[in-house]
Amino acid sequence: MLSGYNNPATDTCCSPACTGRRVAELGITVALSLVLGFWSFAPAPQGGQVSLDLVPLLVLSRLRGATAGLLAGALYGSLHALQEPIILHPIQGFLDYPLAFSLLGLAGVLPPKASWDIPGVILGVGARLTAHVLSGVYFLHLFIPVDQMPASPLVYSLAYNATWLVPAGLLAAFLVPILARAGRR
Predict the structure, then answer these.
(1) What region, left, alpha or beta, does residue 48 occupy, with left being phi > 0 and alpha being psi -120 to 50 degrees?
(2) How many angstroms separate the CA atoms of 131 and 94, rounded?
(3) Where are the domains of the chain?
(4) Cα 115 to Cα 157: distance, rounded to the nearest angstrom
C-alpha cells in the first residue's frame, strides 16, 4: 500500500497519476483506521480506548510527511466522531476528535529515516495526548465543581488519558517502525 514513493522531504510529485495515488493512499489509511477503531482492547469509561487505529495514521505520517498525516488525522478524527461520539461541547468535540487525531501527523515532521520512527511516534502520540488533556481540563471546569474534583483538573485529565493512550502509544511504537520499514522498500 505504501511502497513505491519517494522520500517525503524531497518528493516533488505533481503528475495527476501520482496525485491520484496519494489521495487513494490517504483514503485507504483513513478507512483502515476506521476499521481498526472498532476493535479496542480496553475502552475507558469516559471515552478513549487502547486501539490500533492510530497506527495507519502514524505510518502515513512517517512515510509521506506531516501534511499527509495532519490531513488524514483530521479526516479520521471527524469520521471517528460519528462512530462513537462522546461530545459534550463543541470545543471539547473539536479537541478530542479532529484536532487530537490530526496531531498524530506531527510524527512526519522528523526526518524520514527509520531511526526517527520511534521519536516520531512519541511526538505524534504526545501531541495527541496534549489535546485530550486540554479537552479534559476544559470539560472538568464546565461540568464538575472545583470542590468536588478528586485532584487538579490537569492532573486528573493527564492521569485519565494516559491510562489508555500510553499503552496505545507503546503498541504503535512497536508496530510503526516495522510497517514503515516495509513501506520504504
Answers:
(1) left
(2) 9
(3) 16-183
(4) 32
What does the pLDDT look like over 60-86, one tens digit per residue? 999 999 999 999 999 999 999 998 778
Specify the amino acid at residue 168.
A
Residue 9 has pLDDT above 50, yes or no: no
Res 23 pLDDT > 70: yes
Question: Which grid cell is 24?
Answer: 487513494
State the Cα torsion 116-122-124-127 to the nearest 10°: -140
| DSSP E strand stretches across 15-169 | 40-43, 49-51
154-172 mean pLDDT = 93
| Contact in structure between 119 and 170 (CB atoms under 8 Å) | no
Provide the CATH topology of domain 16-183: Arp2/3 complex 21 kDa subunit ARPC3 (1.10.1760)
CA distances from residue 119 to 99, 116, 137, 170, 185 in whole angstroms, order as listed: 20, 5, 26, 12, 21
Closest CA to 142 of 68, 87, 88: 88
Q: What is the pLDDT of residue 151?
A: 75
**Which pLDDT belongs to residue 89?**
83
**Whole-prediction pTM:** 0.86
